[in-house]
C-alpha cells in the first residue's frame, strides 16, 4: 500500500480516537453527578489505579506496551478530573 494511503488511514484513526476521547470526556458530567450522589471525591485514586491496571493488562494482551498505554490513560484520567473540577465550579470552564 502506498505511503499516502497509509497516512490517510492513520489520519482517519486519529480522528476516531479524538471522537472517542470527546465521548469519554463528556461522561465526566455524569460521573461527577454520580460521585456527588454517593458523596465521593472527584479524584478517586483507587479507581484510577483500577483503570490503569485494566488498560495496561488489555494492552499487553493485544501486544502493545502496557506502560506506554498506561501513560496515555493517565492523561485521559487527568482530563476527566480537570473537567469534573470545572463542572463543579472549581475550575475555569472553556
Can you give a write-up of this model?
The protein is mostly helical and 94 residues long. The protein has a single domain (3-87), classed as Chorismate mutase (Chorismate Mutase Domain, subunit A), CATH 1.20.59. The protein has 4 helices and no strands. The protein is flat, with a radius of gyration of 16 Å.
DSSP helical segment count: 4
Question: Radius of gyration over alpha carbons?
Answer: 16 Å
Question: Overall pLDDT, averaged?
Answer: 95
Order of helices and strands: HHHH
Q: Give the second-level CATH assignment, the architecture.
A: Up-down Bundle
CATH classification, class level: Mainly Alpha
| Uncertain segments | none
What is the total number of structural domains?
1
What is the 3D shape? flat
Give a short account of the largest sheet: none
Number of strands: 0
- Overall structural class, as computed from helix and strand content, comes to mainly alpha
Percent of residues in helical segments?
over 70%
Distance between the termini: 41 Å
| Name of the CATH superfamily | Chorismate mutase
Task: State the CATH topology.
Answer: Chorismate Mutase Domain, subunit A
Strand content: under 5%
